[in-house]
Amino acid sequence: MSVFTTVDLLRHGEPEGGQKFRGAIDDPLSALGWEQMRTAVGNYQAWDAVISSPLIRCAAFARELTGRIDKPLTITGGFSELSFGIWEGRAVAEVNAADAQALGQFWRDPVGHPIPQGEPVADFDRRIGAAWDGLLRDYQGQHVLLVAHGGVIRMILRRLLDMPLHRIWRIEVPYAAISRIRRHCDPEAEPHLVFHNGHLA
């Protein structure tokens, strides 16, 4: 077992259905999305285990990958995406045309201007924080891959960088982007961001 815990964060690729608010909606990956994720991972297989959101745009690729590299897979509901409430399934352009003010307020301050019927961002942050703490505890000293969503990855990086919660949209997380976090197994050690939107090596 290593003295470091290393976690690679992989966002899912492009889903079917185009650009829209897609939190709880379970759209599968498009053909391009599959290609994006396979390209991002390449022949890399140094992980001890893979953890995935249960949503199919993450879990389908995680199952394919673990079958290929013969490593265990854990599906964790705590890493599901933020629910976008009344905007779920609607195109971003449609929401902007219908209520540009509400959309702009949400982008600027998602805590102070939540989406009606959506998951409050503070609750989302607590959920991701609990799942992340559990991952670091359960996989201490291992190198693991977390296949998740843009919002999930932003929340993890927000905690790591001690960013204000209302500034999460400042972090770019493209489809199939990979980031790496490493933490010494000393319980007092702080995790480090090794790279963001980088490449496996």
TrEMBL record:
Gene Ontology, cellular component aspect: cytoplasm
InterPro entries: His_Pase_superF_clade-1, His_PPase_superfam, PGM_Phosphatase
Gene Ontology MF annotations: phosphatase activity
Protein name: Alpha-ribazole phosphatase
Pfam family, one: His_Phos_1
Top-level lineage group: Bacteria
Organism: Candidatus Competibacter denitrificans Run_A_D11
